[in-house]
Design a protein that fits this description.
Length: about 325
């Protein structure tokens, strides 16, 4: 028996491509829709790839009329906090207006299940650790605000039109698929673990630690890292819950463990067997000392449990980056 058809928008990006691979492995029919502005065609592991923009309602309507789509998963947001401050219009257009376009086309085509990638950035400066879903939402940048706006829009669309959704607020997605075929590829790269590994590979001359005077065990920021395949697993569980008649819901996704920047660098040195330059500099503005998720709600309701530890995250990411460097050499 054929399983449901899932449209994955942003399926050529980092998290989206891992989601596509897992959905396909689980027997779902997967269609990828991506404008390739930040995604890569070679990360897509299924044949059904359509290049298109969420701003293009005609193209979206074509997709929904051609395929019998049962649900949509959204991974098509812009995610750079700094850029969102400099160019908020770009973020509100893509992360909010384009999502409204997509939701309206879904409703016109009677598609009522939506899985949304949200972010821990909706919380702003944490008032208590670990962070629960009920924590106050006071995002401090346009990126976080754009994600919170969509969450609020989804509440209204559920109430008015019966559109059922699951929102996942990620903490720090990291790692790569065990196959080594897909992994984290951003340009420019701003995420900590890829930056460390690029330094280990000699692609950067140093890695920076921004601030060593935080009120933490070693003075550096503490963050919660979650493997990208653990995220993908949660999305499938959230989707299947909606299919089974479950209500709309919001979940944090993190490991529940905090690791300091210094710890991650030291672990990476051990796993890669490389020594590299580390430069300690001043704090960056807007970096909270500690961000750790309380993901007990996802564990209790979705029966979800992260399978990967920090060592696995760094090891799988290193495998991917190492292979990429060798591919480009040949």
């Amino acid at each position: 028996m054929k399983k449901e058809t899932v449209l994955v928008v942003g399926g050529a990006g980092y998290i989206g491509s891992h989601q596509v691979k897992m959905l396909d492995h689980e027997g779902y029919n997967v269609i990828v829709y991506d404008n390739l502005s930040t995604g890569y065609r070679d990360l897509v592991t299924v044949d059904s790839f359509l290049e298109g923009d969420l701003a293009d309602k005609n193209k979206l309507n074509e997709v929904f009329s051609k395929y019998k789509i049962d649900a949509v998963m959204h991974f098509a947001a812009f995610i750079e906090v700094g850029e969102s401050v400099k160019n908020p219009a770009k973020y509100y257009r893509n992360n909010v207006s384009n999502v409204i376009n997509l939701l309206n086309v879904m409703l016109e085509n009677n598609v009522k299940y939506f899985i949304f990638s949200s972010t821990a950035a909706v919380y702003g400066e944490p008032k208590e650790i670990p962070i629960k879903e009920e924590h106050q939402k006071k995002p401090i940048n346009p990126y976080g605000k754009s994600k919170l706006m969509v969450e609020q829009i989804l509440q209204d669309y559920d109430r008015a039109y019966g559109l059922k959704y699951t929102c996942f607020r990620y903490f720090n997605a990291a790692g790569a698929d065990e196959s080594g075929k897909i992994g984290e590829k951003h340009n420019p790269e701003t995420h900590l673990i890829p930056l460390i590994l690029q330094t280990a590979l000699g692609e950067r001359d140093k890695i920076y630690i921004f601030g060593t005077d935080y009120d933490t065990k070693d003075g550096t920021c503490i963050r919660d890292f979650i493997h990208v395949n653990d995220l993908a697993d949660a999305h499938i569980k959230g989707f299947e819950r909606l299919l089974g008649g479950g209500p709309s819901e919001v979940f944090n996704l993190g490991s529940g463990n905090g690791y300091s920047v210094r710890e991650i660098i030291e672990k990476a040195k051990v796993i890669t067997g490389k020594n590299f330059n580390v430069l300690e500099v001043e704090r960056r503005e807007g970096d909270p000392a500690v961000l750790i998720a309380d993901s007990s709600k996802a564990k209790n309701i979705l029966n979800w449990e992260p399978k990967y530890h920090l060592e696995d995250i760094i090891r799988t990411a290193w495998n991917w980056h190492f292979q990429q460097k060798n591919l480009h050499k040949n």
